[in-house]
Amino acid sequence: MYPFTTPTGIVRNRWYIAAFSDEITRDPIERTLLGKPVALYRRENGDPVAMYGLCPHRYYPLARGKVRGDALVCGYHGFAFEADGKCSSVPSQGTGAGFCQPTYPVIEKGPLCWIWMGDADKCDPALIPPYADFELGTPGWRYSSPNYFRVQGRAQLLVDNLMDLTHLPYVHHHISGGEAMADPKMREERRPSSYRVVRMGKLPWTHFNALVWLPENAYEGLADFDQLTDFYGPEFIRTGFPIYTRVPGHETVPPALGAMHIMHGITPETETSCHYFGFSTRNFRTESEELDAFQLASDIRIRQQDADAIEAVEARLEEGAARQRELLVKADGPAVKVRRMIQSMLDAERV
């Protein structure tokens, strides 16, 4: 499965985002995750449940049923499955059944619900990306702009996109200052929780800066910045706005020119499609609903542009890869390293 040597491109022993917390209610929903239909709902105490989504009786979608107590009741013949999967009622025979529907561990942390669909003996909550690293839930930081896309392209295309930001001035040409990412200096860091790429450059004050950081914080000349990209795994990547490291006319960077982290949750739907979850955190203008609205609109536009590009690639990928060897260049270095990491994960799951 391109670009890997394995038949699958999906790493299963990871925690993936199943849904935003507010998507899961007492009304069940279905989402295909890692190639399997999964019914998602909440128990009476509010805990989320993830259950294999097809009734074993006639393979009717369980999410078309209803929740009764903690059980999910099939909308076809009324079979009831408790939160642990046990079939507790078969109405036509007045009993339960010695059958257990598959369920999957779900952990709800803040605005996200994570699901484990890999090997049970490898399921460790500590493997969820560390929220403190990107300031989710940290005092003084604001969570904003949650958004979701279903992308008709394999998850790896999105990973490649996020690890190579030289596409910014072309795909996202509406953003002023994007040319600073066309050929930046880079350094790499191996961290306990992520593989980090730091892109360094200089940035003038632009109209986009004024919309984000406000006109009264403008500077003259060129400011130095770092842009962080953290690969936590095939399921989660952090990018972000430029983080100022030196601003003309200031001995230290003013707090008003703070940081914004942009988070990307990538959950395979099938081998050639994925769910794309986005949100941001920031430590400036933390009470501004105006900035929330601007950031959400901007984020949706940018992610839609990426989704459009990825879907265009996916549509011709097999044909293109069969005819030509992929041309890799210097800017692809981080993406190629990440591909090797994922290939190692895939190989380990074949053993």
Task: Describe what you observe in this structure.
With 351 residues, this protein is α+β, with helices and mostly antiparallel strands. It has 2 domains: 17-122, Rieske Iron-sulfur Protein, CATH 2.102.10; 130-350, Naphthalene 1,2-dioxygenase Alpha Subunit, Chain A, domain 1 (Alpha-Beta Complex). 21% of the residues lie in helices and 32% in strands. It has helices at 155-163, 168-171, 207-213, 289-323, 333-350, and strands at 15-20, 29-33, 36-42, 48-52, 66-68, 71-73, 80-81, 87-89, 103-104, 106-109, 112-116, 142-151, 185-190, 195-204, 222-233, 236-240, 243-246, 260-270, 273-282. The strands form 4 sheets. Strands 12, 13, 14, 15, 16, 17, 18 and 19 form an 8-stranded antiparallel beta sheet that branches. It has a 4-stranded antiparallel beta sheet with strand order 2-3-4-9, with no helix packed on it. α1 (155-163) packs antiparallel against α5 (333-350). The radius of gyration is 22 Å and the shape is globular. Keywords: 2Fe-2S, Iron, Iron-sulfur, Metal-binding, Oxidoreductase. InterPro entries: Cholesterol_7-desaturase, Rieske_2Fe-2S, Rieske_2Fe-2S_sf, VanA_C_cat. It holds the Pfam family Rieske. This is Rieske 2Fe-2S domain-containing protein. One of its GO terms (molecular function) is 2 iron, 2 sulfur cluster binding.
